[in-house]
Amino acid sequence: MNNPTHHDEDEEEQGDVFLDESDIVQEITVDDEDLPDVEGEDNDAESVEEADDSMHIFTGHTGELYTVACSPMDARLVATGGGDDKGFIWKIFDGDWAFELGGHKDSVTSLDFSTDGSFDGLVKIWDASSGDLKCTLEGPGGGIEWVRWHPRGHLVLAGSEDCTVWMWNADRSTYLNMFSGHANKVTCGNFTPDGKTICTGSDDATLRIWNPRSGENIHVVRGHPYHNDGLTCLAITSDSTLALTGSKDSSVHIVNITTGKVVSSLTSHTDSIECIGLSLSSPWAATGGMDNKLIVWDLQHSSPRCTCDNEDGVTCLSWLGNSKYIAAGCVDGKVRIWDSLSGDCVRTFSGHSDVIQSIGVSADKNFLVSCSLDGTARVFEIPEFQ
């Protein structure tokens, strides 16, 4: 081994000093992760800004967003609700136009426009054009899980955490009926498209079918071969004959509304079903789950047409008008557009930094609006997907 003092002398006489193999004392393998950062270099991946594909961002809320709805009449009018106990009505392309829908004492988790543009959020009825509160509908003893308008009139239906479903006349601000029978919170429900029947699903793993006029519970669907865990979502076919329900048990079942019998089961998912959507142009359905899959089903044969693999769980979906395209909101903050014929992902919209909770499509089908736990609602242009 050479004396280091000898190197100092050589360095003074010869300038640069080079090591040869005889100078090596020990070889040490160093992992790249153990190396210190170069001064001035930012290696934090989170600091790299990801592309934002949105063309409008609504930031009026001060907390997480849970729900979004687009007006069926005005293609620019949007409503959102969130964990800041507020709802807002706002317009795409108009950052200065917004009405706050205040007076709530808890998170706004569900809202819906009536067919003529009126607005309902957490059982408060608002005039969408003026932002004025028309009335507050009272009754449920627990938080509201969802609200829906009757397809042909100003009747409002709401499911509650207290196991009940309530119906009011919004024009008269009057209570009409209360539907009792579920043994746990009522997580999903709606009128049939013909307005003659009500279907509700619960965390008690049952589907109940009701007569809205009399309040009679016509059918209770439960037990084998139906779900064995709580229901999460529900969709009803346009002819009012079939109800499709999804559950935490990873299955989807098709129920004949008239008979209350399970007519088919769709069982390709491996985790909780979060959303169901029906095609307007073909006898197909789409389901999204926490197994990262969006599955397109042929309802005539009860078989999957294609499986679309996302990078994270699918929380919400919407068919884009009468087209073959489906928008899926995901846990990773992305909105993905899928071709239901080929099963290909044809576009991924970035911008959100947290879970997508809800998506809506504008009346003219040119815009997709998403809301997220990141506290924002974002608008994406989708005219090519019609």
Furnish the topology, listing elements before pairings:
Layout: H1 4-14, E1 56-58, E2 65-70, E3 77-82, E4 87-91, E5 94-101, E6 111-113, E7 119-121, E8 124-126, E9 133-136, E10 144-149, E11 155-160, E12 164-169, E13 174-180, E14 186-191, E15 198-202, E16 207-210, E17 217-221, E18 231-236, E19 242-247, E20 252-256, E21 261-266, E22 273-278, E23 284-289, E24 293-298, E25 303-309, E26 314-319, E27 325-330, E28 335-339, E29 345-349, E30 356-361, E31 367-372, E32 377-381
Antiparallel strand pairs: 1-32, 2-3, 3-4, 4-5, 6-7, 7-8, 8-9, 10-11, 11-12, 12-13, 14-15, 15-16, 16-17, 18-19, 19-20, 20-21, 22-23, 23-24, 24-25, 26-27, 27-28, 28-29, 30-31, 31-32
Description:
By secondary structure, the protein is mainly beta. Helices cover 3% and strands 45% of the residues. The chain has one helix at residues 4-14; strands at 56-58, 65-70, 77-82, 87-91, 94-101, 111-113, 119-121, 124-126, 133-136, 144-149, 155-160, 164-169, 174-180, 186-191, 198-202, 207-210, 217-221, 231-236, 242-247, 252-256, 261-266, 273-278, 284-289, 293-298, 303-309, 314-319, 325-330, 335-339, 345-349, 356-361, 367-372, 377-381. It has a four-stranded antiparallel β-sheet, with no helix packed on it. β31 (367-372) and β32 form a beta hairpin. The termini are far apart.
